[in-house]
Design a protein that fits this description.
Rossmann fold; alpha/beta; two-stranded antiparallel sheet; 9 strands; single chain
Amino acid sequence: MDTAGNTANDHKVIVITGAGAGIGRVTARRLLGDGHSVVLAGRRRESLAETADGSPGATVAEADVTSAESVRALFGLVRERFGRVDVLFNNAGVFGPAASVDEIGDEDWREVLDTNVTGSLNCAREAARMMKEQEPRGGRIINNGSVSAHAPRPSSVAYTVSKHAVSGLTASMNLDLRGYGIACTQIDVGNAATAMTAGFGANARQADGSVRPEPTIDAVHVADTIAHIVSLPTDVNVPTVTVMAREMPFAGRG
């Protein structure tokens, strides 16, 4: 999976949302190490600068994916600086509070859906527009799904619904964009060790109502998988891929 030693033709312009922490940060640093130009997008410039860590290939761009105007400005910057975009990693997302359907609040519901679904749509829309127009035409869009797109955790209604929606978004994109040289992937991650999953190693709520620890994996393995997909020519598609801790109780929940 190592794509180090890129030639000029292998060099790509990559946009990563939610690049200030977690999977976004680890993936950005992996792709920067592979010699790509990586636009680090997120709401907090300080966190993005920490991800960049002085890399000459990094461009820090404050952006709020829930705002269509902010996303248009982000891709306007990409167009002005690079003239094209080869890869979008639609990574920005939030988990939201633990709540079932009768417990979720209005604002909490909106925040999760606005970030995970509308945010992904906003970014994919602008990336696809650029990829259709640029020469050579085409590119790759990778949406960060979740194993929750297949089976929920208890009391995760907003997050689970949002990730099922991401599956629909990815499927629609693959159908609508394949004729334009655009390949679309959904990567479903289970228990990568990030701030979002920090509690799982000690007290993850199970489908039977119990609370017990779950295994986690280093997020670098997710980044390695994304780097491999990025290295593929766009006539090769990986519609879905799951990267998860082997012993996490995924199949038996829901």
